[in-house]
Amino acid sequence: MWAPQQEHSVSQLILVRTAAVIASVPRTAWAVSWGVRTGLAYARCMATHPDHSTEAYQADLSALHEASASRLRRLCQSNGGVYVKAAQLLSTAQSIPQEYRQKLEVLQDRAEPRGFEEVQLAVLQELGAPIEELFAEFEPQARAAASLAQVHKARLLDGREVAVKVQYVGLETAVTADFTTLSVLAKAAAQWFPNSFDFGWVLQELKQNLGKELDFRMEARNAQRLAACMAGRRRVAIPEPVPQLSGERIITMEWMDGCKLTDLERLRDLHLHSRDVAIELLQAFAQMTFVDGFVHGDPHGGNILVRPHPEPQSFWYRWFGGGWVEPQLVLLDHGLIVEIPDTLRQQYCQLWCSFILNDQDTAQAIATHIAGKRGGELLPKLVRPGALRNEDQRRALRTQAGVNTLGDLGRMLEGLPRPFVDFLKVQAIIRGAATKLGSSLHDRLRINATYALKGMSISRLPDGAVAYEGSMQSSRKRLGISVSIAALRSLWWVGSTAICLWRNVISAFSGTDSYVRHPA
User: Which residues does the UniProt record annotate as the domain ABC1 atypical kinase-like (predicted)?
Assistant: First the structure.
C-alpha cells in the first residue's frame, strides 16, 4: 500500500516542479520588460541633460527614480520569491537612491498560501509519513505565507502545540530560474551605467542568504544556538525545534503567540508599555552584537513578536509596575544569522568604548583596522549616535570621504568586512523599531556602552588574547570606563525608581495606570 502512495507522490512532485518552470516564464518576461524600459528611460534623461549638476536634471532624475521604483515594487510583490528577497536586501543598501529605498522598504514578504494537497506532498516527501500519522491535529489553512514557505499550526501526538514551516514544493527550480534572470539584468545594468551602483555584491549576498534560508536544518541549529546565547535573558524567548519532525525543507517548532513588535495599539491593549519593549529589544541585540557575536540577521516586524510574560511577574513589575505587565520578546525565523569574527567583535567593542572616553584618535585607529584608511575616517562618524544631526553634516562627510556617486559609495561598502556591513544593517533596523517604540538616544548610548564594555574583555580566540588599541591598552582607562558606565546606570536607576514611585502614588489616588521606566 505504501509503495503505490510513494510512487504517486513522486509523479506529483514532477508535475509541481514542471509547473514551477512554466510559471517562471511570465515573471522573467515582466522583469526583462522592466529592465529594458527603465534603462531606456535613464538613458533619455541623461541625454536630455548633458550637464548633470543642474537643478533641472536632479528634479527629473528624482521623478524618474520615483516612477521606476514604484514599478519595481509592483513587479517584486507580484513575482514574489527571489524578487521579494532581492528587493528587501536592496532597501537596506544606503548606496541606492533614496526613492528606491523608501519604496522597497515597505514591501511585505507575503504570498498566497499553497493548497493543502501540496503541503501533504511536502510532508510525505520530507518526513516519510503522511500528516495524519505524525500529528494529532494539523490546520489545513496556513496561518502565514511568505515568499519561500508557509506556516501551519498543528498539535503533536503528545498534545504540544507547534508551528510547522513548510517550504514550497518546486521552490529550488523557481529560485534557479529567477536568479538567472536577475543576474542577466544586473550585468546589463553594469554595462549601461558603469559609474552607478554595482549590483554584483547584492546578488552574491542574496545567493548566500538563500542557500542558508532554504535549508531548514540550519535554521534549527541557529535557533538552538541563539537560545543558548539568550538563556540568561528572562524577557527573550526562542521557540524550541522538534528535531524528529524537521528536515531540510520542513521545520517544526514550539508554537508561541504574540503581537507584532511595533503594533502600539495592541501593546497597550495587553498592558505592555512600548518603551519597556524597546529597552529589552536594544539590550537583547546589544548582547548578540557585543558579547555573543551571533546576531539574528532578519529582525523585521514579522519576525519579532511581543507577549505578556507567561511566568509570574518579576519583582520590579510586582512592586513598581503601576498596572503595566512584564513583556517578553519572541524571536522567530532564524534562517539568517550574522556571525561576527571575534577579532572584529572585540574591535567594535573598543570603538564604542572610545566614544565613552571621547577619544577620537583611538576611535579612528580602530576604525582604520576595520575599514582601511579611507573608511577609518568615515566610520566613527557613521556609527556614533548623534554624530550626524543634519543634511549639511552628512554632505560634508560625503565630500571628506570622496563619495560623489553611487558607484563610489558602493565600492567603499564593498571594502568593508561583510559581517560588519550585515550587523550594521541589523542595528539600523533595531534602532528604527526602538525609536518608534519610544526609546531615546541616551538609552541606546547607555545600553550599547554597557554591553561593549562587557564584550571588550571577552576573547574566543585560540590564545584567549585581547588586542587592545590606543588608550584601551591602559587598564586605568578601562577602569575609568567601567566607573563612568556604572555611575550612569546608577543615576538612571535611581531617577527611574523615584519617578516610578511618584507616578504610582498618583495612580493610587487617581485610579489610572501610570508609566514605569524600569532599570536597564
Answer: 107-364
